Amino acid sequence: MSVAITGIGSLLTNDPELGTITDAAVVFDGDRVAWAGPAARVPAADERVDAGGRAALPGFVDSHSHLVFAGDRTAEFNARMSGRPYTAGGIRTTVAATRAATDADLSANVARYVREALRQGTTTIECKSGYGLTVEDEERSLRIAGEHTDEVTYLGAHVVPPEYAEDPDAYVALVTGPMLEACAPHARWVDVFCERGAFDGDQARAVLAAGVKAGLVPRVHANQLGPGPGVRLAVELGAASADHCTHLDDADVDALASGSTVATLLPGAEFSTRSPYPDARRLLDAGVTVALSTDCNPGSSFTSSMPFCVAVAVREMGMTPDEAVTAATLGGARALRREDVGRLSPGCRADLVLLDAPSHVHLAYRPGVPLVSAVWRAGVRLP
Ligand code: NIG
Ligand code: FE
């Protein structure tokens, strides 16, 4: 079954040859892109959809979220907006609620937020564990995440849970030992929160090295709340991504520029914690590959909206609209080492967003407006 979407006013493909095409069309064959180009040359297809001059772009790739959780942290958010600073300690509130939740409740929660994200154009989403922090609760978190996405990340090293407060190294031994053994079969990635109040450089190195040995690929929560060794460690270990990158010195930027690690920026976290934003301009000017993601979680960034992140990145982080939209699509794909998403090249997965706007620039130009008017994922149109 093939479908031709014609009458696209402006089509952002992220394909190096095709670029952005005006008066364009796309043809899907089953779950793949078969063709993209000028509408005047569109090949025949079983079905035709007229985009009516609207803009189209690849589905967003959200390469950083924490959706397996229960409860919420409205009180903490309220306190923060009255002046209390954000700390990693709030994570423990969600850990307690998550441990107490049933599998069915956790799964329903993930389904709800994946669906919420999809309605806003996110067709690929990564999802981490990290609110269980026991062997059993981390293992079930990953199993549940895997019911909803293929991009699953083991984050047993999110914080040290209260029962290990007196002996954090024993917790690192658990995370790199029995917990990893139970979790590795359910995950593709290993992550660690390398930050004061969570895990230091040595502990983070141990967690990532053990994960690699178990067949997982590293990504790192790095330099979110202050300067630290996370970014350089990520580059040294060949991590797919260093996430947050808010507090960087010249050596961090140089390391990112010389390596292949993507810098994933998460403006929802700075927005919701009233913190200074990362300097995307500095990274882009240094030649670093930048991704934008939501970091959707109940503590530091309770948004599932990639259009929101694009708008904030343009307003606050020195990105142009083109750069921000590319970072939210192709950048996310690179952070997940995926060739089949984030682009509308022939052979890629048929993930497309139609906007109620003439150009993808409107995602930043019209902040807060629900512009996503239709979404296809793997060739299937969202009802
Ligand atoms: O990416 N930084 C660590 N983890 C999350 C916050 C999680 C929470 O506060 O519950 C983040 O911001
Ligand atoms: Fe995060």
TrEMBL record:
Keywords: Cytoplasm, Histidine metabolism, Hydrolase, Iron, Metal-binding, Zinc. GO terms for biological process: L-histidine catabolic process to glutamate and formamide; L-histidine catabolic process to glutamate and formate. It catalyses: 4-imidazolone-5-propanoate + H2O = N-formimidoyl-L-glutamate. Pathway: Amino-acid degradation; L-histidine degradation into L-glutamate; N-formimidoyl-L-glutamate from L-histidine: step 3/3. 4-imidazolone-5-propanoate binds at R73, Y131, H158, Q224, S300. The keyword Transmembrane does not apply. Binds 1 zinc or iron ion per subunit. GO terms for molecular function: imidazolonepropionase activity; iron ion binding; zinc ion binding. The keyword Secreted does not apply. It holds the Pfam family Amidohydro_1. Zn(2+) binds at H64, H66, H221, D295. Fe(3+) binds at H64, H66, H221, D295. It is found in: Cytoplasm. Its main location: cytoplasm. Its EC number is 3.5.2.7. N-formimidoyl-L-glutamate binds at Y131, N297, G299. Residues 242-360 form the Amidohydrolase-related domain. Its cofactor is Zn(2+); Fe(3+). One of its GO terms (cellular component) is cytoplasm. Catalyzes the hydrolytic cleavage of the carbon-nitrogen bond in imidazolone-5-propanoate to yield N-formimidoyl-L-glutamate. It is the third step in the universal histidine degradation pathway. Belongs to the metallo-dependent hydrolases superfamily. HutI family. HAMAP family: HutI. This is Imidazolonepropionase. It comes from Nonomuraea jiangxiensis.
